From TrEMBL:
InterPro entries linked: RNA_pol_sigma-70-like, RNA_pol_sigma-70_dom, RNA_pol_sigma-E_actinobac, RNA_pol_sigma70_ECF_CS, RNA_pol_sigma70_r2, RNA_pol_sigma70_r4_t2, RNA_pol_sigma_r2, RNA_pol_sigma_r3/r4-like
Name of the protein this chain belongs to: RNA polymerase sigma factor
Molecular function in Gene Ontology: DNA binding; sigma factor activity
Domain called RNA polymerase sigma-70 region: residue spans: 20-84
Source superkingdom: Bacteria
Domain RNA polymerase sigma factor 70 region 4 type: residue ranges: 110-161
Swiss-Prot/TrEMBL keywords: DNA-binding, Sigma factor, Transcription, Transcription regulation
Pfam families the record matches: Sigma70_r2 (PF04542), Sigma70_r4_2 (PF08281)
UniProt GO BP: DNA-templated transcription initiation; response to stress
């Protein structure tokens, strides 16, 4: 009984040390998968609970980050599939809110908002390739797909993001022209 307790204690300490050392990077990964900070924390916690149960099965602990990212992606996909469709289609997208007024925050908010137009699989590929800076092969391994699928999914995702940015840019310029026209009429 003592040996089992000692082994279990070693597992807990090993896992706790891993989480302590990697928690900031893991939370950043979660934040890239879901835009809401609270949801990102929930996603990470759920993934950690699921990973803890399989911690001894990860033979090479240097792959723990990749394993945990995969668990987060799978969990996020489960949540996405299970959610009710509370969204209402609309012609005009709401303005992205900027809390602190810095350009960097505005860019990040826009990027997070635009990532929302992608399907979960496309978002996962974009996040791993461009934010996590994983190679095509590493992304394919983490997502359980071929490198060709990663490349084609990334190509389609980036084309969709470009299209969304262009659309928003055209909407913005039309709004600016309309506002300038109203200012001239008022003067």
């Amino acid at each position: 009984m003592e040996a089992a307790s000692m082994a279990s204690s070693g597992k807990v300490l090993d896992f706790e040390e891993y989480v302590r050392n990697r928690q900031d990077a893991l939370l950043r990964s979660a934040r890239r998968l879901v835009p809401d900070p609270i949801d990102a924390q929930d996603l990470l916690q759920t993934a950690l609970v699921r990973t803890y149960g399989r911690w001894d099965g990860i033979a090479d602990k240097s792959l723990a980050d990749a394993y945990l990212r995969r668990v987060m992606i799978n969990t996020r996909t489960e949540w996405w599939r299970a959610r009710k469709l509370d969204e209402v289609p609309t012609e005009q997208l709401p303005d992205a809110s900027v809390e602190d007024g810095t350009e960097q925050h505005a860019d990040r908010a826009l990027l997070m908002d635009i990532l929302g137009v992608l399907a979960p699989k496309q978002r996962s590929v974009v996040v791993l390739r461009h934010w996590e800076q994983m190679s095509t092969e590493e992304t394919a391994e983490a997502l359980g797909m071929s490198t060709g699928t990663v490349k084609s999914t990334l190509h389609r995702a980036l084309a969709r993001l470009r299209q969304e940015l262009e659309s928003r840019n055209l909407d913005f310029h039309a709004l600016e022209r309309r506002e300038r026209g109203q200012e001239r009429c008022a003067a």
